[in-house]
Structure of Cysteine dioxygenase:
Amino acid sequence: MDMEAHFGEANRDDGDIMSLVLLIHFLRLVPWTDQNEAEIKSRRLLERYKGDVHDWGSHFQEGYDFYDRKLLLQIEKFTLLLLVFPPRKGNKVHDHGSSSCVFKVLQGELFERQYNKPRGGQERLLRKGQITYRQGELNTSSATNTLHCVRNLSRRETAVSLVLYYPALTECHIYTNSGHAYVTQPMFGRAVPTVHDLHRLDGDNDDDAEEIEDHEL
């Protein structure tokens, strides 16, 4: 199918979107006059995206040993990132500032651990729940209650996700085990000390995948 025909097919409300180029094009067209409607439309666009590794794979190199992010779109209403999780890598406990998000797993599986936001005098973060997302699954996180970390627990397969923040991601907070937080501006590159800092999941680390048990929640 040529690009013109592909565009016409994807322009239908129920048509599959097979390329990031088209997905970004449609996101730019989403009106922001009604934020709730914009959230519904943007989530639907991510659901319709069916691109495979031949489409999004050009944005990273398989075999890298670090957690990486690729900025695909940054406009006032949206930030779109491609997140790459090598085996046994993930991010630190964080929120998304005033932005909500929806993410879709493009490859592999991702484990999310959720936490309650700390209150005054709280000594440690309290775990709220955990869930595993498989390829093709979506999840929406609200700005008001999102405090989590995301991990690739596989020892062999790289996991990849597509994350849409709305409105655009402008700040976030990283949390320590004591519940203390500090603010950082997003830096869209590789191996930078922000919310997506590299984080090993082996050795004596208390977030080791082998130690994650339901009774710990």
In short: Residues 35-48 form the longest helix (14 residues).
